[in-house]
């Protein structure tokens, strides 16, 4: 099959995050199975990607630019709502439309539907107000959700029943033995629980923390964070990296005090592949991702509860080893194993394409019958 993934947000390397990483690894898994895959994404200013895109669009007089820096085509544009040009160039059998916060997902889906392309909505968050309308209005679409929490939210909001397929996390990219030197907090931004992480670090001056950047920080936000960390010598900030093995290779456990309604919690899966427990909030699907391999703290709990959980895993070797064993076992559950996830994903795609072919055949037969009657 020829599969086109869409993201209204910018894509790697301009923007990194769970959706981008999961898409990249799913594309690579499809390529390894002999399928063709590409990504259609938004674009943002700055860096070689934007410069290359601007030059290519100007010289070739195209609405989209395309690059293959990741080993497969990535189509980039400022406003990816009308996919006609990409459809003509890539000729997909099916479009996997992933929701984001740009408000473009529904418009994109309708663009594909108008061109006779099968559509699969892949819900990666529950910010449904950002979809741009009701996805159930795309009558031919199929639906995937990245967690039971997300699927339940979709049923409540739209009356649809997505198939649950957790994000594909390629274990080989993360699995490593750890020296267990620090507490790692990934993505130091407010919605991911920055204030809680700062508070815990301040109450545990004997524990080394690493604050690992994930979403790009603006110069202003980075300066503000560095000012806050000036009074916390036990916290070391680290810039963005593609080598997460190096990050997890020094972590004792991961702190994930998110305030956002997490649809899944990819960092929990990555960490548990390394046998690292996770202390996370009760938000959204994060408890589903952590399971028995860590501790869940109520999102509304006072700071003292977070401090107590961190001290419990740092100070009690027996409790730490118990949860580390549970984390590794949880990472071995069948539903997050790559081959099983890919098989489930392909089942949805094939069924959706097959329904589209059947509908097209029925329309052709109907038109033929009408023509014969007129004769």
UniProtKB/TrEMBL annotation:
GO molecular function, one term: glycosyltransferase activity
One Pfam family here: Glyco_transf_4
Keywords: Glycosyltransferase, Plasmid, Transferase
SUPFAM superfamilies in alphabetical order: UDP-Glycosyltransferase/glycogen phosphorylase
Keyword Transferase carried by entry: yes
Naturally occurring in which organism (per UniProt): Cereibacter sphaeroides (strain ATCC 17023 / DSM 158 / JCM 6121 / CCUG 31486 / LMG 2827 / NBRC 12203 / NCIMB 8253 / ATH 2.4.1.) (Rhodobacter sphaeroides)
Protein's name in the database: Glycosyl transferase, group 1
Domain Glycosyltransferase subfamily 4-like N-terminal positions: 17-170
Keyword hit for Membrane: no
InterPro entries: Glyco_trans_4-like_N
